[in-house]
Amino acid sequence: MNEKILQMLYENDWISGESISRALGVTRAAVAKRIGILREQGYVIDALPKRGYHLSSAPSGLSGFEIVRQLKYDKRWRIETFDEIDSTNAYLRRRGDELPEYSVAIARRQTAGRGRLEREWYSPASGGLWMSLLLRPSLLPDRAQLLTLTSAVSVAEAIRGLGLDCYIKWPNDILSPAHKKLVGIRCEMRADMEAVYWLVVGIGVNVNNQDFPPELQNVAACLRQLNGGKALDISAVAAAVLDRISENYDLLCADSFSLIRDKWINMALAINEEASITGLQGKETGIVRGLDDEGYLLLEQNGRLNRVLAGDMVIAD
To answer: How many domains is the chain partitioned into structurally?
Structure first.
């Protein structure tokens, strides 16, 4: 009922309690009670005799309704929000077989967030966007990395669309101009040799959380720091990310990864520069030349282009 009342408040400059109660089939006392709950959630709602209710402002924190309202590309996402959870990725993994595609889990705080290679992801209740998406792409398992790269492109585009500068560090980290980490992306899937049943994309964005523990202060940054110290609306950031993922996911499903690859290259660090990759085969050093059609990094070594699927990149000084 709260969301229906909010929708009516957004659609009308002023609306009477009687009009709301009649539309919803409830008493005016029930409407007044719901208005009180919305005010407790941070909505500023004015009330005047004979005029009714007027929405003056919405909260700048996390709100599933506000995220959906601000989506521009489409409204297909089914959003669940949590005050606290172990991990949004773990939640969608547990329910991956039963939830529909485009399910989204977003938490104000994670107690067991993880990044790539099982590294702990710092995700306090102080203004970050901790979000996971459930998708069912028509990809063979050996091409699932394309969705990881697509997600990185989408998040970087969303941040740039907010007027903030950022870059992609292979394969899917988003860094500030000072090369500090703004975003981490972790993808997990259930698949067999022939098909991907579901793929969970976990996205952790440091939005307003700028009080990092000592071990992260030299390597992490947040969007607020890039925004001159001004806090950002987390719901708006989430909507921007989901919009860009929707658009690029449609490209991927239409077999247009080449367009996404071009975007990735245009936003990536170290293109045509020397870098070292540490992976299962040890350390490899060469000139980064971009991505191939399968999403492999192209590393030029001794005049030959070699393909690298996974690893950690260190950019030469």
So the answer is: 3
